[in-house]
Amino acid sequence: MADLSDNQTSIRSEFADDPDMQDLVLEYINKMALRVEKMTAAYEQGEREQLIRLAHQLKGSGGGYGFPILTTLAGELEQTLLNLGEGGLDQAAEPFSALLDVCGRMAA
Amino acid sequence: MPSTQANESDERRHSVLVIDDSEDVHRLLQARLRQENITLLSALDGATGLAMAEQEAPSLILLDLDMPDLDGFEVLRQLKETTSSRDIPVIVLSGLHSPADKVVAFDLGAVDYVTKPFDLMELRVRLRAALRMSDLVEMLGRLAHIDGLTGLWNRAHFDARWNECIADNNRHGKSLSVALFDLDHFKSINDTYGHPAGDAVLQSFAKLVKRVCRVTDIACRYGGEEFALIMPETSPADAAGVCERIRQELSEMHWPAHPERKITVSIGVTGTEQTVEIAPEKWLDDTDKTLYRAKKGGRNQVIATDIQSGNMIQQPSQPTQQAA
Question: What is the ipTM of this complex?
């Protein structure tokens, strides 16, 4: 499990100072609210497959946009969900919450 | 095969097709690979990716594995089972990290496997390496179809393209002509002036044919001192005109190694302006017979006939100088 000791600070992209990436990172962050909304809806409605897909996409893209912690946490959520079998999503509450926390603290 | 001339340059900008269901990944690749000499094509699902691979014939495919509906494994399998796409190198770009996934991907025909999130430099060098290898494979394929002495296409290439042209004629009824050339008394050139002189004649004749014919024509060394020229979308009358120009220019050429000896060629041309029901081998056999008539008629001349009717297209050209 990733350790986020200071959960108040914003998390800046590793590419925040890269002129080729600034606009892309900003767009990525701006769309994060929509992703969080989709993940929350999937979680609350028990749509495990949809939540796995959304987590998998975040795992694949987070590091590329300079947020390796996003890749780590999304990967942990994905793995937890895969290990659940057909069980309830409540068991994934902790990694899900950790991921959403980071999504809310992302900054360019 | 991208060109019809064996000596055409290989220089070109590569196109790379990205098949991934994440728009974020597409945007990221567009930004990160901007410096590379490539054009990126995007497909957001497997079915679209398969269609684009067939239509666009990209130089390389970057393929995600975990996609809804048609997953990357199935896309890869179909790519490798389709004639038009099976030779396109595929690099898997996936968030699936397990050795089992990698084994399956390589077994299905992937040339490389990069895990997400990808390291930019690693992806770039792997992509360049795959494109270099692809270029080498393509070059080897082309060399296998090129005649080493003259640089024209060889007999194997002629056979493949001739069948394609016949099929195209059958489907669309487009004009099609073919010419067979035989250098007159070529053996005596070798015997009298040596094989280097004979080779120089073959090379000069090949250059002449390439210079006179169009880029869409397919010039081949058929074997020994025999050459063939496929002329798609060309009537037999026009083909005869091209061949007459070749015949005339050759007969007027000066040969430093043997200035006293002129070189001439006999040419048989057959063609049609409509769809014909004829086997490729039979068509060639009839063209060879037309060439034989040119030989028997005194050499250094063009004889052209309509392949369907057998009617002569033009009177045999008058030799400008009798072959030695």
Answer: 0.79
